[in-house]
Amino acid sequence: MECPMCYEFYALDRVARNLLCGHTYCTICLETMYKVSKRIECPICRTKHEPNVKPNNLSKNFVAMDLASKHLEEQQAGPFNNQKNI
Ligand SMILES: [Zn+2]
Ligand SMILES: [Zn+2]
């Protein structure tokens, strides 16, 4: 599970957040977007959120973060750990 904007996996310092439209992005991307455009606009479905909807007010997507951490664990523990420089 990775953020569709920065393609980084969700993590504790990259918390997944649900937008009101149902799409999920990491807090870092949402905060950058909020700083630039003073509101959150979903890049996938173009849903504009009210300016008072701030990244920290959106609900966390624990499922996405859980999947991401499991995926990272598998990568680190898996048999293919020679292929780190993809
Ligand atoms: Zn992101
Ligand atoms: Zn959306």
Rg calculated over all Cα atoms? 14 Å
Largest sheet: 2 strands, antiparallel
Strand order of the largest sheet: 1-2
Overall shape: it is elongated
Distance between the termini: 17 Å
The hetero molecules present are: zinc ion
What structural class do the secondary elements suggest? Answer: mainly alpha
| Percent in helix | 25-40%
Q: Order of SSEs, N→C?
A: EEHH
Which parts are unreliable, with pLDDT below 50 for 5 consecutive residues or more? none
pLDDT averaged over residues: 92
- Give the percentage of residues in beta strands: 5-15%
Query: How many strand units?
Result: 2
How many alpha or pi helices? 2
InterPro entries: E3_ubiquitin-ligase_RING, Znf_RING, Znf_RING/FYVE/PHD, Znf_RING_CS
Domain RING-type: 3-46
Keywords: Metal-binding, Zinc, Zinc-finger
GO molecular function: zinc ion binding
What does this structure look like?
- InterPro entries: E3_ubiquitin-ligase_RING, Znf_RING, Znf_RING/FYVE/PHD, Znf_RING_CS.
- It comes from Paramecium tetraurelia.
- Residues 3-46 form the RING-type domain.
- This is RING-type domain-containing protein.
- Keywords: Metal-binding, Zinc, Zinc-finger.
- By secondary structure, this protein is mainly alpha-helical.
- The protein has a domain at 16-74.
- It is 31% helix and 7% strand.
- The chain has helices at 27-37, 62-77, and strands at 16-18, 24-26.
- The protein has a two-stranded antiparallel sheet with strand order 1-2.
- A hairpin with a 5-residue loop joins strand 1 (16-18) and strand 2 (24-26).
- The longest helix has 16 residues, at 62-77.
- The model has no long low-confidence stretch (mean pLDDT 92).
- One zinc ion binds next to loops.
- The site of one zinc ion has 8 residues, from strand 2 and helix 1.
